[in-house]
Each structure stands twice: as structure tokens, then as C-alpha cells.
Amino acid sequence: MKLGSKLGEQPPSEGQEPRPSREGQEPKPASEGPGPKLSAVLDTLTRDLTAELGKLYEGLAPLLADIRRDIAALEPAEGDAMPPPQEQEALRARIGTSLDEAEEVLEALQLATRESTRGKG
Predict the structure, then answer these.
(1) Which range (32-36, 76-80, 99-103) has the least confidence?
(2) Whole-angstrom Cα distance, residue 113 to residue 121?
(3) Whose CA is closest to 110, among 84, 118, 39?
(4) 114 and 79 in contact (C-beta within 8 Å)?
(5) How far apart, in whole angstroms, are the C-alpha atoms of residue 21 and residue 27?
(6) 15 falls in which pLDDT band (50, 70, 90)?
(7) What does the alpha-carbon distance between residue 51 and residue 79 come to, in Å, rounded to a whole number?
């Protein structure tokens, strides 16, 4: 499971062809309004990972907490100010780095889950 693909990839630039989503469907046009907030996508991802990994999810929890904190800074509550552009870029870069690290941990945890399942059967 690619974590970055679940957490809101950037839409294509003007003149670029839109990329198909994970399910092979075209992304919805910008005229249909914004997609779900990243925090909502992270909630769904967290639920899916908890169901898939069980207790092993605890290995990802600290990274996902860091990602959640940085996303919250990029999605301030109504009436709160967005961080300055440089800070937004730093937050996005940190989220990307955390997602890469979480992906590596997830792969190791999924492998451990498969191995423990084989050992039981």
C-alpha cells in the first residue's frame, strides 16, 4: 500500500494529463470541488492499517501521529491563519519524509504479519 497515494497527491499542473487513481478511475475534475481533507484521509488510512496489522499497528503509531500533527498545521480550524508559505513547504516536505519512513515500516510490519500467519498455519 503506497501511503502517499492515500494522502492526497497533488493534482496535475495545467496542461498535464490527470493520472488515474489507484482504482484506475480518473480523478474528479476541479470543478467538482475540493476532495476530502487530508486529516479525513489519514483517519481512513489509520482505520485500515489498524484492521490489517492489529497490535503491530503500534509500530506505525508514532509516525502517523507526527503526520497528523503536520497535517493539522496545514488544515487550520476555521478562523485560524494558515502558516506562512515557507512553513507550509517545510510541513509538506516533513510529511513526505514521514510518509516515506512510514511506508518502509509498513512494509516490514506487513511482512511480519505474513510470516506470523504462515507460522500458525
Answers:
(1) 32-36
(2) 13
(3) 118
(4) no
(5) 6
(6) very low
(7) 35
Question: What mean pLDDT is reported for the chain?
Answer: 78
For the chain, the residue count is 121
Query: Which distant-in-sequence residues (6+ apart) come within 8 Å of 7 by Cβ?
Result: 38, 41, 42, 45, 67, 71, 95, 99
The pTM (predicted TM-score) of the whole model is 0.65
Q: How far is CA 19 from CA 22, 27, 72, 97, 100, in A?
A: 9, 7, 27, 22, 21
Please give, one letter per residue, the 3-state secondary structure of 30-78: HHHCCCCCHHHHHHHHHHHHHHHHHHHHHHCHHHHHHHHHHHHHHCCCC
Q: Are 39 and 71 in contact (CB under 8 A)?
A: yes
